[in-house]
Amino acid sequence: MQVSMNKPAQGDYAWANYLIYMEGGAELPWPVEEPRKHPLWHGVLFVAALAAAAYAVTAFGAKGIEPVTVALPLGLLIGNLLKLPESWKSGIRYTVKSILTLGIILLGVRLNFGDVLKVGASAMLMSAAQVVLMLALAMLIQRASGIGAKQATLLGIGTAICGGSAIIATAPVIDAEERDIAFAVATVSFLGLGTMFLLPLVAKALGMDDKAFGVWAGLSIHQTPQVVAAGFAYSNEAGQAATLVKLARVCLLAPLVLALGFVYRKRADGKKHKRYGLYDFLPPMVLGLLALAIVHSLGLVPQLNLQFPQGSLAGSGFGLDLLGIGKTASGIAIAMGMAAVGLETSFRSLRNIGLRPFLAGLVMAVAGILFSFFAIRLFGV
Predict the structure, then answer these.
(1) Which of 81, 84, 232, 326 has its CA 20 to 30 A from that of 119?
(2) For 97-131, what is each residue's pLDDT tens digit?
(3) Pairing mode, if any, of strands 304-307 and 317-320?
(4) CA–CA dist 36, 224 (Å, integer)
(5) How far apart, in whole angstroms, are the C-alpha atoms of residue 169 and residue 188?
(6) Domains of the chain: which residue ranges?
């Protein structure tokens, strides 16, 4: 089956394609774009200005809030209220597909796999339990709402695992229609976007500690960039916990898709199905993040010290904190990426989703949020 998302990419949720590609691997091509008539730096510079404004707001006005929390709604407001020059669009899209990707990969310098022990086995068991719950709920909702079984499956696995990437990975093995794929992708993308923005605010109001919120975000929010943004918007500890729990969910994608493929093969009576490779389950962005996290966890990130001759103008020397530089660069890149995501998101695109699949996805998203919240309260993390 050939999955084509190029038409939506030209419309109101083009940004979702970029985020899905980062998580979903090579099955989904980059959105087709017109040949560049303007240099990238026009749009990149504008997005950088929005990120700088978000940093300024958090530094001087809204202390205690992370810049990424401000950057996304700022981009949403400007993108929907103002008509931006055409010369900026290529740079804005470049920010989403390249700078945001780099920022997420650089998060590896914040992650130490020793912290997996801090997250605890209970959080990992919650991840598996939530996947089972979401798929069972998807089947119940399918019968109650009348949406197709394949569309319900896509919504369930997108909510349970990792949003659009899980949908794209699952669609070929169940022979899903392109319309079902587009609706499922749009639904989980927008619901994940809303959850990313609202969950930290709710957690602050409830007084959740950093680790508990990180596990909650990692279990509840759909796409990896959204989990990362919400977690680190809360705190560094929450961001680490959220990312680790989210990676645990992503690791469940491969066995789940293989199981679904086996079930549908039994029903397909000899129809041909796609064979999967490494990048379908561990795409380049996740592989890059994991590689950098492993290097950091093993203590292999070097500290650079530059020494100068005595009596020179430069003095005796100075050191470069590569870990600190990586953390700062990651934060800036993610703030820029989220601002660009906001600029690329049109509220009109809600009309492209369809009411029944949207409501089904909403019920599943709320159920996942409530299940994970009460599981954390009941069992602790």
Answers:
(1) 326
(2) 888 888 878 877 877 777 666 666 777 788 888 88
(3) antiparallel
(4) 29
(5) 14
(6) 6-306+315-379
